[in-house]
Design a protein that fits this description.
VC0802-like; 21% strand; alpha/beta; 2 domains; binds magnesium ion; 8-stranded mixed sheet; 16 strands; binds aspartic acid; single chain
């Protein structure tokens, strides 16, 4: 069994639905196809929820109707037979009605979850109808029958495994379609795995059925060695180890949801990142047999804030860092990078919603300095300390760039440093020159 997950853009239009169907048709193995909502839909559902929360019913209804119109027009173009379009109309009417009834009630957190779930429910239904029209035998499974989370929002892996095997056994087909993102919670109510959660669904399903591979289909050719928006001639990385992918996922969250690596890694299932719009490209394979390579990829993350806590009391004192960490824990703000000296600690966060409270409390421990508009540059690869020359290759070219923090040795697969966002593009290009030129040339020669 393999799992194929298609993101929002892959099912973003009639033309794209058809591309996905042809990829599914070409895949001769038994498969579970996991779909996101059509692109933009989850954002629309968020704004509908926001309007309803603010009791702005009329605007919410306008959006609900517009969404329905969009769906009807997609269904009309996608489904050629009258029968298919008729079935789609019945399904779309039901979903339209759900949103309309929610808009008439008092808007609760549970109603919001129901609203959020509609995108995936609709995309999978439309896709199933299209496959029926192509006479491709498939079964539409409701993720709400097997995807469960506990009271902490964590997946209940054993239950998922048990339920999904029962659900699969009910059908005689080799192609299954289901929704990403949505699930049921401890109270058996509709819930979700948070934004971008469809990758996580795919990985959890892959682990539950012990898939031989999990394919994540998006709109780029896998993980690039550098950011193609800022650097020319980037190339897709052929393979990555799970550890390298985990380091990079935080930075390139756009292509792969960071959390989604975990179930696949734990069950040792290779993850293949593919491009729906260029299915012939090899993509990136994440597995535990990846060849060791010095530098694999560079990625950057913006909107980073650095906080420095300077205190002479820290000199030879124990328990100091614990107290600092407790402040962040209390405000549920995660720390990404950290470096310390004898008298100061610098750390970075990307969620600044509690920055004011955090700095206020940290003042009890020393002088606080805050810098914003920074970017973390992450270099991933096999950077174990016994590899000589890696750090000089990295820093040689950067002699004119002010570096605010460096983190190295935390894991063997990552070296990160912090620069002003205004320097980011220069840094990515300088590193590309220094670290990948030879690799790029080699690729060119091979091509
Ligand atoms: N549709 C959801 C979102 O946009 C889940 C996903 O696509 O991964 O966040
Ligand atoms: Mg996504």
């Amino acid at each position: 069994m393999i799992v194929l997950k298609f993101g929002g853009t892959s099912v973003g239009s009639v033309e794209n639905f058809k591309k996905v169907a042809s990829i599914v048709q070409d895949c001769k193995e038994n498969k579970i196809v996991v779909l996101s909502a059509m692109s933009g839909v989850t954002n629309t559902l968020v704004s509908i929820s926001d309007l309803l929360r603010a009791s702005n019913r009329s605007e919410a209804l306008q959006k609900i109707d517009a969404l329905n119109e969009k769906y009807v027009s997609v269904a009309k173009d996608l489904l050629e037979s009258d029968e298919g379009f008729y079935k789609a109309q019945i399904i779309l009417k039901k979903h339209h009605q759900i949103l309309k009834s929610v808009s008439e009630e008092v808007f609760t957190a549970q109603n919001e979850k129901i609203v959020m779930a509609q995108g995936e429910l609709v995309s999978t239904n439309l896709f199933q109808l299209y496959l029926e029209e192509l006479a491709l035998e498939s079964a539409l499974l409701s993720a709400l029958d097997f995807m469960f989370i506990d009271q902490h929002g964590e997946p209940k892996s054993a239950l998922i495994k048990d339920r999904i095997s029962k659900v699969l056994a009910n059908h005689q087909v080799t192609t299954f379609i289901t929704q990403g993102f949505i699930c049921r919670n401890e109270a058996n109510q509709i819930d979700n795995l948070n934004r971008g959660g469809s990758d996580y669904s795919a990985s959890l399903i892959g682990a539950a059925v012990n898939a031989s591979q999990i394919q994540i289909w998006t709109d780029i050719d896998g993980m690039h060695n550098n950011d193609p928006r800022y650097v020319d001639q980037t190339f897709s990385v052929q393979e990555l180890s799970f550890d390298e992918a985990a380091e990079l996922a935080y930075f390139g969250a756009k292509i792969l949801h960071p959390q989604s690596i975990i179930p696949a890694q734990e069950s040792n299932i290779p993850v293949l990142l593919k491009n729906t719009f260029k299915p012939e490209s090899a993509g990136t394979l994440i597995h535990n047999k990846a060849k060791v390579q010095k530098i694999r990829a560079i990625a950057a993350k913006d909107s980073i804030t650095a906080i420095k806590i300077k205190s002479y009391r820290m000199l030879m004192a124990y328990g100091f860092i614990k107290k600092i960490f407790e402040v962040f824990e209390e405000h549920k703000t995660s720390i990404d990078m950290i470096t310390t000296s004898e008298v100061a600690v610098s750390l970075t966060i990307d969620d600044t919603s509690k920055l004011h409270e955090i700095t206020n409390e940290l003042q009890a421990f020393g002088n606080i300095e805050v810098d914003s508009d920074l970017s973390i540059i992450c270099i991933a690869g096999d950077l174990s300390q016994n590899k000589k020359g890696v750090t000089s290759a990295i820093f040689d070219g950067l002699r004119n760039i002010p570096i605010r923090m460096i983190s190295y040795g935390g894991s063997n697969y990552n070296l990160s440093f912090l620069v002003k966002t205004t320097d980011k593009i220069a840094v990515l290009n300088i590193l590309n020159e220094g670290l990948f030129k030879e690799v790029a040339l080699e690729e060119e020669i091979q091509a």
